[in-house]
Design brief:
alpha/beta, 8-stranded parallel β-barrel, two-stranded antiparallel sheet, 14 helices, about 45% helix, about 15% strand, globular, FMN, tRNA binding, oxidoreductase, RNA-binding
Length: about 325
C-alpha cells in the first residue's frame, strides 16, 4: 500500500492520533514495536496560527519515527490552509485532517466530527488544505453524524475528488462517541467501491492480534489504524505482526517484559515533562492496560499505583506487582 511516494507494505498498522497519548516518546515506542506509521496528537489550527507554544511543540518530530503524520483540525478553510503550511515546514511525511473527533469542545464548535453536519464546508476545507501544501494530505472521519445520517459511502467519493491521498474511517458515528461496537461494514463498502482508488484505512475496536487478522481478511482494508487498543499496550503492533507471520509460534511479551516497558515510559515521560506531569501522563496507560486484568486481590495495589505521585513510589509498586502478582 502506498500513500504518496511512501510504500507501507502489505497489511500495515498505523498508530492513531490521540490527544494526551501520542507524544513523541510514545510514538517512538510504538514504532519500535512495529507501527508502520505514527500520528502526532491532533493540532488546533487556530492555536497554531496564534503561535501557542504548547501547540507548536506538537510539531516536533524526529527522523526515528518516520513515516509520521501531523494531524490538524479547525473549522474554516483559511486557518486550516495556513496551519497546513506551518505544519509542512516541520517536514512530516503526511498532513492529516481531523474530521472525526467527537468531543464537545471540538465537534461542538464546528470542527472535527462537527463538520459531518456541514459537508460543503468540510469539502471546502479539504480542497484548501490539499492546494496549500505539496505533501500528501489524508483525512480521518466517521460514518456520519448519527445512525440516520451514515453518509460515508457518498462522502468518501467527495473527499477523494478533493485530492486526498488516503482516507481513514472510524466505524462509528459522532453520536456514538466511543460507545457500542464499531461497524466496519460501511468501511468495506467504501473499499469495494470501484470508483475509490485511494487507500482506505479502517479504525475502531482493534484490541487483539486475532481481531486484526480477522478484520484484514473480512473487510479488506489497505491498512488498520489502532487507537485506544494501543493505550497501555504499545506492544500490540508487535503482537499483530507476529500473529500475521506465524499464528502458531509467535511469542507475546512476558509480563516482566511488559513491566519494563512501563518503567521506560515512566522515565521518558518524566524526562520529557517533569516528575509530576510525567507521572500523570503514565497513569492513563497504567489504567488502560490489560496486563493486570483478572489478577485476584489487585484492587488496593491498583489504587495505590494510580495515586502514586513520585517515580520512587511507582517503582516500588512495580516491584511489588512483579514479585507478588506476576510470578504467581
Amino acid at each position: 500500500m502506498k500513500i504518496g511516494k511512501t510504500d507501507y507494505g502489505e497489511k500495515p498498522l498505523f498508530l492513531a492520533p490521540m490527544e494526551g497519548v501520542t507524544d513523541a516518546s510514545f510514538r517512538l515506542m510504538c514504532k519500535e514495536f512495529g507501527a508502520d506509521m505514527v500520528y502526532t496528537e491532533f493540532v488546533s489550527a487556530d492555536a497554531l496560527i496564534r503561535h501557542i507554544k504548547k501547540t507548536q511543540a506538537k510539531l516536533e518530530i524526529s527522523d526515528e519515527e518516520r513515516p509520521v503524520a501531523i494531524q490538524i483540525y479547525g473549522r474554516d478553510s483559511e486557518s486550516m490552509a495556513e496551519a497546513a503550511r506551518i505544519c509542512e515546514a516541520a517536514a512530516p511525511d503526511i498532513i492529516d485532517i481531523n474530521f472525526g473527533c467527537p468531543v464537545k469542545r471540538v465537534a461542538g464548535k464546528g470542527a472535527g466530527a462537527g463538520l459531518l453536519r456541514d459537508i460543503p464546508k468540510m469539502l471546502q476545507i479539504t480542497r484548501a488544505v490539499v492546494e496549500s501544501v505539496s505533501l500528501p494530505v489524508t483525512v480521518k472521519t466517521r460514518l456520519g453524524w448519527d445512525h440516520e445520517n451514515r453518509i460515508i459511502e457518498t462522502l468518501a467519493e467527495e473527499l477523494q475528488s478533493c485530492g486526498i491521498a488516503a482516507l481513514t474511517i472510524h466505524g462509528r458515528t459522532r453520536s456514538q462517541m466511543y460507545t457500542g461496537q464499531a461497524d466496519w461494514e460501511p468501511i468495506k463498502h467504501v473499499k469495494e467501491n470501484p470508483r475509490i482508488n485511494i487507500p482506505v484505512i479502517g479504525n475502531g475496536d482493534i484490541t487483539t492480534p486475532q481481531k486484526a487478522v480477522q478484520y484484514f481478511n473480512e473487510y479488506k482494508t489497505d491498512a488498520i489504524m489502532i487507537g485506544r487498543g494501543a493505550i497501555g499496550n504499545p506492544w500490540i503492533f508487535r503482537d499483530i505482526k507476529g500473529y500475521i507471520e506465524s499464528p502458531d509460534t509467535y511469542r507475546p511479551l512476558t509480563p516482566a517484559e511488559k513491566m519494563e516497558v512501563f518503567r521506560r515510559q515512566m522515565l521518558e515521560s518524566i524526562a520529557r515533562l517533569d516528575e509530576r506531569r510525567g507521572i500523570l501522563h503514565i497513569r492513563r496507560h497504567l489504567a488502560a492496560t490489560t496486563l493486570f486484568k483478572g489478577i485476584p486481590d489487585f484492587r488496593e495495589t491498583r489504587i495505590a499505583m494510580l495515586r502514586a505521585e513520585t517515580a520512587d513510589e511507582l517503582e516500588k509498586i512495580f516491584d511489588k506487582i512483579e514479585t507478588t502478582y506476576l510470578k504467581q
